[in-house]
Amino acid sequence: MTAAGTPGHGPLAGVRVVELAGIGPGPFAAMLLADLGADVVRVDRPGGAGIGVDPALDITNRNKRSVLVDLKAEDGPSRVLDLVERADMLIEGYRPGVAERLGVGPEDCRARNPRLVYGRMTGWGQEGPLAQRAGHDIAYIALTGTLGMIGEPDRPPAVPANLLGDYAGGSLYLVVGLLAALHHARATGTGQVVDAAIVDGTAHLSTMIHGMIAAGGWQDRRSANLLDGGCPYYGTYETSDGRHMAVGPLEQRFYDRFVDLLGIPGLGPAHKDPARWEELRAAVADRFRTRTRDEWTAVFEGTDACVAPVLSLREAPGHPHLAARGTFVDHGGITQPAPAPRFSATPTSVRGGPALPGAGTADVARDWDVPGLTKDGG
To answer: What share of the chain is helix, strand, coil (3-state, %, to 5)?
Structure first.
């Protein structure tokens, strides 16, 4: 077995997953399962996904193996169903109805394997007026109200890359659903379909905010609240070198330490009076502009003032805390986030680099006992 298929690494060792190749949240969900030890076989199409990323650098395909199957070929669906028969889970991210037309929909798969957990990853969901429409992360989160929460009040909403929708509202909810359904399948012998829609997951992420709105503790507009940048002691500030510091001393004792170290102790009481927030914000901003980011980092180092430097993606792996924890690892010449979370009895690791399309065909055919995967059938 290849390095990426080595069993015994992580709490999901022994779990078999078929991933029908796609882009975005589906591959990330499959990577997370692979990081946790599952044997993930990615079914790539001949010619690739067409997103322009060198497969050797696409680390969302780490810890997986890949086979090539043309689902539009006459024998394509049967080759995938041979894998499905031996799998615990399947992940697909097509528009509703496409998997069925290809012959690998839920009914086709569960006819071969009643215990299969069939995970469906979409933006709009399997049903509803928008189910058949194309879309991407930004449109999905726009409709949930979450995009409209983010940014300054006099500017358009800020775009949080595709982290909020694709990965938080999509991938993570799919994985939770798959694991819950796997637990049910192992207890009852019956699998089921998991409909993971980015609109559903992203809306769910805002549960606390909806409660605060109902309680009168949140205004439904940007940068007007405690946690959205409206509060002068929960936000970011520019330093003299054009970099930024993140500030979040919400509790009184942390706030007192913050204003003391920043050098504005006379404005301590201002945080309790929203009418003085703009005064406080201006004072905090003026002070941060007097020193560089690294100088302010040194000022707040080792304190409970809840202040941290805003690092770039390239800077983050070198931070002493993240380096000490091994939050990032180097594998195959690529610096990348390490698997998370961590387990005391079944540790995880990056076991293999990105699965190159088709490179695992022979090994998977042997390990899963599916000789038909190889071109000569054996």
So the answer is: 40, 15, 45
pLDDT tens per residue, range 39-85: 999 999 997 765 668 999 999 999 999 999 999 999 999 999 999 99
* 3-41 pLDDT, tens digit each: 444 445 899 999 999 999 999 999 999 999 999 999 999
d(CA 378, CA 362): 9
SS3 307: strand
Contact 121, 29 (CB under 8 A): yes
Active-site residue among 70, 136, 256, 331? 136
Cα distances (Å, whole numbers) of residue 367 to 165, 256, 275, 355, 356: 35, 61, 67, 16, 18
For the full predicted model, state whether its pTM sits above 0.70: yes
Q: Is 136 a catalytic residue?
A: yes
Closest C-alpha to 46, from 358, 359, 353: 358
Which of 356, 373, 320, 376 is closest to 86 using CA atoms? 373
Of 44, 58, 137, 166, the catalytic one is 166
Say if CB 371 and CB 365 are below 8 A apart: yes
Instruction: Please give the DSSP secondary-structure letter assigned to residue 280.
Output: H
Q: Would the CA dihedral through 140, 142, 147, 152 be positive or negative?
A: positive
